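Notes continue from the previous slide.

Worked example: a multi-chain complex. Inputs as given:
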Amino acid sequence: MTALPRFPDPSLDMALQYRAHGRRSVLVILASFAGLILIAGSVTLMGISDTGLGTLFAVVAEKASFGLFIADADPQQTRVLIHLRLPRVVMAIIAGAALSLAGVLMQAITRNPLVSPYTIGVSSAAAFGASIAIMFGVGFTSVGIYFVPLTAFLFALGCASLVFSMAWLRGMGAQTMILTGIALMYLFSAMTAAVQFVATQEQLARVVHWTFGSLNGVRWDAVAIAGGIILIVLPLAQLRAWQLNALTAAGDDVARSLGINVALLRGQAVVFSVIVSAVVISFVGVIGFVGLIGPHVARLIIGGDHRFLIPFSAICGAILLLLADTAGRLVFSPTVIPVGIVVAFVGVPLFLHLILSRRSEYYA
Amino acid sequence: MSLHLSLDDIHFRYGARQVLTGVSMQLDRGEILGLVGPNGAGKSSLVRTALGLARPSCGRVLLNGTDLSRIAPRERARRMAYVPQSSPVSFPVTVFETCLLGRTPHMGATPKPRDIEIVEEMLERLRLQDFAFRSMGELSGGERQRVMLARALAQETELIVLDEPTSALDIGNQLFTLRVVADIARERQVTAVIAIHDLSLAARFTDRLMLLHHGKVEAEGAWEKTLTEATISRTYGVQAEIGLLRGVPVFAPYEAVRTGAVQKVPSQNWPEDNILP
């Protein structure tokens, strides 16, 4: 077959190709979101106690209709679904999405693929906060179940503010931010180690368990708080997608010559990233890796345009964490392996596979 | 011809080091000015000051008579574009997407058909259409440099400032790229400032030259007056033969001048003076 002449002129191809790429990206995002819902539905049914699809539908329908529809389901199954499985599954989605979103923002504003939401020290600061809360606050029942997460959150914010103000003083450069963050990360790790050194056996076990990152015993109020925050931050980040494109693809000076206030953009992205990652860490502990790998997986599949990359990173992180947590629940059932551990076992092979199977252009 | 860009008595300081001392520059609309001078003479600082990316410690920059600092960033971006010396690639992004960034000051959340049209036109003019959907990471340094130029041209500004736009290009692409810049400048009455090392290219493709040395203007005007054996010896520390080959100015440096060659080369990374042997 002879090749047809390119008509009317080859330049048309570029516009068509660009639009086709955009449509393809939107389709990928929609399909992966449908996939996420499907996976969430199926893993909710998996576990030690058998629950049927009918019960899940009935329970979700009853809750979604605010009780207008009364489910006639098995009370035992209903309790398992409402108090154990569903909050856990929803929190896995929220945490994965939040950490991955935070990661994609941090990587964009530092133009550095090695950066994660934890690079600026929020995780070790939160761990230190949680440690001292566990050590000294166990008796304070009046402060209740929010004491540990709240302390962790405040320490994470404090650390981030420190990094932020140092970077601000130095003109909001990416390198200052990374270096200050890493320095503070070591400082807080050392302080956590110091606290652990003087802790009792029981306290030590709790601190160590907290730092693993686990979705055990997640409550609906935590789900609501974390979910609400990500629902606010995600669209705000999305609004800045094009500016982030300019910053990652062209650098500070060119971005500024394109009319972008780089210092402001960087500041906003840090704030978004810190808030979503800190709130997640505070409730479920330090789940590493998702914030680093989620954005890379997304980028390998969909490319570097942040208009698509931001939502897709969130979806990839959610799927990754959901699968990891399910594996952690089921593989050695009834023993539950903390998701912070499993996620590396699930994520690393996937990531290595993507790197090896992709063309060499990914990292120039 | 009307006065387009004017820099008045610019002083610029980088830390403790005085980089520019009392530099003034006037450009008429549609004029191409070449900025030449040895390493560390202050070319890049002058370029960044002219763009409003660096704030001078003294002096002011006027665009059509308005102080640059009074023009909102987005409005400024619609009027002046920047081609940097190099741009490192850290994440996968295609040539087309990179070029489309030039439309940032003109568009809302997403590119319109007109934005895409202009990007197509510029990629074609710079013969990059076959690379359009390749990742920037796959390109050679020279191809990448042409993409950055295409991006700046897609910005459709009345003024364009280029910092060493040909440093990574082979001789064929040097001529081709500067020809495109000169053509566009003439067609659309675009004013251009080009910082460039190659004296032959500088003399050939610009209307006027400014020779910088130690942050001061050493000479300014037509290339024959700016680049003489005396000024070249004084600033670059080389003896050079200057001639015309088929009407094209050619500079052949043939020997380093002992006294001139020993010069302080201020470096941005190392604050200590780096004395050449």
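Summary box: Residues 47-357 of chain A form a domain with the ABC transporter involved in vitamin B12 uptake, BtuC fold (CATH 1.10.3470.10). Chain A touches chain B through 40 residues (CB under 8 Å).
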